[in-house]
Amino acid sequence: MSKTDHSNNISTPKHLAIVGATGAVGIEMMKVLERRNFPVASLRLLASPRSAGKSLEFRGEQIVVEPLTENSFKGIDIALFSAGGGISKEFAPHAVKAGAIVVDNSSAFRMDAGVPLVVPEINAADAGSHSGILANPNCTTAITLMAVHPLHRAFGLKRIIASSYQAVSGTGARAIEELRQQVDEISQGRPVTKDVYPHQIAFNVLPHVDSFLEDGYTREEMKMQNEGRRILHLPHFTASVTCVRVPVYRAHSVAVTAEFENPVSLEKAREVLMEAPGITLHDDPSKAIYPMPIECSGEDNCRVGRLRLDCALPNALTFWVSGDQLLKGAALNAVQIAELL
Amino acid sequence: MSKTDHSNNISTPKHLAIVGATGAVGIEMMKVLERRNFPVASLRLLASPRSAGKSLEFRGEQIVVEPLTENSFKGIDIALFSAGGGISKEFAPHAVKAGAIVVDNSSAFRMDAGVPLVVPEINAADAGSHSGILANPNCTTAITLMAVHPLHRAFGLKRIIASSYQAVSGTGARAIEELRQQVDEISQGRPVTKDVYPHQIAFNVLPHVDSFLEDGYTREEMKMQNEGRRILHLPHFTASVTCVRVPVYRAHSVAVTAEFENPVSLEKAREVLMEAPGITLHDDPSKAIYPMPIECSGEDNCRVGRLRLDCALPNALTFWVSGDQLLKGAALNAVQIAELL
Predict the structure, then answer these.
(1) A-B contacts at Cβ under 8 angstroms
(2) Catalytic residue among B252, B282, B296, B302
(3) Cα–Cα distance measured from residue A70 to residue B202, given in angstroms and rounded to the nearest whole number
(4) For residues A34 and A29, what is the distance between their CA atoms, to the nearest angstrom?
């Protein structure tokens, strides 16, 4: 075979479908496909009957959103799912049966042994072993691991203790509107309307993301350990996380203390972080340069900063990472997985 | 001596002064003195020449704020200082010379071996050994230690890894106004004005509280370890903290992982937290009950919740604490120290 065969193979245009096209992540998926010049032969937009009939623009053309049915996947090569775990569980098998490969952004299949859970910068090779479905990791997990993985390669990861600062867009469009409305209500002295979150989110923080497990952690908090073990190929890795919703519109941040098997050095840590794909070191505190959610919004790369030798744990580094959870935590990572196929 | 001597002694009315009376903490100090029926013989309000001449109400009477000078402390028994480290360093010695006992809310004397650093619920006995000055701890440290101390007594504290979610009122009245103004500017589509913080605080989070040290931690972050060692009498205690400013008006929150020398149990932890003074256990996640800054604002007690066995560190507990940093973190603790005298 000639040298060009491989690249020809990559760029063979694909017939794509997006399930949940009208959601926050679905819309980002279209933008990412455009921005990365993904070879799209055709794009089918699928959503609930309620959203069907709307038109969305893709590469200058209007595409009418169709209602999702069992028969939506005929002729589709790759289906990007982002419409919640229930929809994925019900419709991904139909997509696979119709011959499509599914890249699923929900948590439905992430822990299935037969489903690769992939962050392309970390474990791209895992994508090769799929049986029709590949899973996209949890947003906070993906953003954190982007910074942790290069350090793991250098020093051998043992465990993580982390606290998150998660934006309302992680909950969806209604949560964005709820924050906006509450801010207006407070500035006008009116009572605060609560609908999406159990408590006021404006000018408050909620140590509550996803539902609670019996041991007192939330499902969201345990994803770092459960998904991290699969992505990093570290079956004994442990992670204790506190996930907190903050009144930020977009981009998640995480304060991370990572303990390693081997001695760490700041020089080496900086070096591997600067060389790693998909992350940018923003770390000059004397000039007030550190990652912040408002600067990471809309940016593909995750930003890492506040890097320091941990003063309480030996062989440990503490740092701060921010990333756009709609991009690296969802749409970008899903399209990157599709690029691997 | 009769049994009543001691209580008579406590209630002998004192001549008080508040330095920094017009600041956020100074105003809270007056409210706390009123609320706790502190035996006040007279109250002198002191501030910068700029604020002097204003009148503030105390127990139904108007008191005119006087300009702070070297001679302000004649006849004063107890002077509560909350006007920044520079003012404390310059004027506390004059107060002591005039015969007053100083309770200082700044960081000026906290690490001086001859100055007791006191959280009355934890180390009240230390107050006895003062030489005229007693120090009030950092707000985030005080709030965190209120929850940590009962657990330390039960299990023997080894180290802490923590991340904070700190309100803008910790910075002062101008920061409260800056958040309010930025929210208005954003809702009106106008450019955002930055003055107090180096970056926008509205709908953002800043991993930057206080100034940076050479090792990459901030001064604020190291206070937990440095002040914690003195308050807990644990010279080898270590604490790795990431301090983060969040767009909340009042009350700080901290996600804490505390590792102990001895095995921990949730039952025992709950028991000691329920019995401990100054804290309230708000911990029923299934009913969305956990500490939140908007509920702790104006409340003397700190709230503890999200208590769980740590899944990454042995002999460790992870929990969430919120407290009003103007009260337990400042004014309340200072008045409680004055009550010990």
Answers:
(1) 165
(2) B252
(3) 45
(4) 9
Backbone angles phi, psi at B57, to 5 degrees: -90, 135
Residue B341 and residue B338: Cα distance in Å, rounded? 5
Cβ-based neighbour number of residue A43 at 10 Å: 22
pLDDT tens per residue, range B68-121: 999 999 999 999 999 999 999 999 999 999 999 999 999 999 999 999 999 999
CB-CB under 8 Å, A163 with B242: yes
CA–CA distance from B46 to each of B13, B22, B55 (Å)? 20, 8, 11
Beta bridge partners of B47: B67
Cα A199 from Cα B199, distance rounded (Å): 27
**pLDDT confidence of residue B86:** 96
| Cβ–Cβ below 8 Å for B305 and A207 | yes
Count of all residues that appear for chain B in the document: 341
Residues B22, B25, B26, CA angle at the centre, nearest 5°? 40
The number of residues in chain A equals: 341
pLDDT beyond 70 at B1: no
Could you tell me if A311 and A259 are in contact, meaning their C-beta atoms sit under 8 angstroms apart? no
The span from the CA of B14 to the CA of A50, in Å, is: 71
Tell me which DSSP letter residue A70 carries. Answer: T
| Secondary element (H or E) of residue A19 | strand A14-19
Q: Can you tell me the distance from the alpha carbon of A109 to that of A134, in angstroms, rounded to the nearest whole number?
A: 8
Residue B296 is among the residues annotated as catalytic for this protein: no
The residue whose two tokens read 């419409």 is: A83
CB A192 within 8 A of CB A186: yes
Alpha-carbon distance A169 to nearest alpha carbon in chain B (angstroms): 12
Q: Cβ B285–A206 below 8 Å, yes or no?
A: no
Read off the pTM. Answer: 0.95
User: Edge-to-edge, what's the strand order for the sheet holding B78-81?
Assistant: B66-67, B40-47, B14-19, B78-81, B101-104, B133-135
Query: Using a CB-CB distance cutoff of 8 angstroms, which residues of chain A are in contact with residue B206?
Result: 290, 292
Which residue from B216, B248, B316 is facing A306, i.e. has the nearest CB?
Answer: B216
B149-204: pLDDT as tens digits:
999 999 999 999 999 999 999 998 899 999 999 999 999 999 999 999 999 999 99
Question: To which residue do tokens 């590792």 refer?
Answer: B259
Chain-centroid distance of CA A28 in Å reads 12
Cβ atoms < 10 Å from Cβ of B293: 25
Report how far residue B320's alpha carbon sits from residue B304's, in angstroms, rounded to the nearest whole number: 6
Distance between CA atoms of residues A206 and A200, nearest Å: 9
**Side chain identity at A290, as an amino acid letter?**
Y
Which residue in A159, A206, A217 is closest to B292 by CB distance? A206
Q: How far is B310 from chain A (nearest CA, A)?
A: 6
Min distance A24 CA to chain B CA atoms (Å): 19
Domains present along chain B, CATH in parentheses:
4-108 (3.40.50.720), 141-325 (3.30.360.10)
**C-beta separation of A325 from A140 below 8 A:** yes
Among the partner-chain residues A183, A255, A308, the one whose CB lies closest to the CB of B216 is: A308
Q: Which residues on A lie below 8 Å from B292 (Cβ)?
A: 199, 204-207
Q: CB–CB of B246 and A249 under 8 A?
A: no
Q: Annotated catalytic, A282?
A: no
Minimal Cβ distance to B244: which of A160, A165, A204: A165
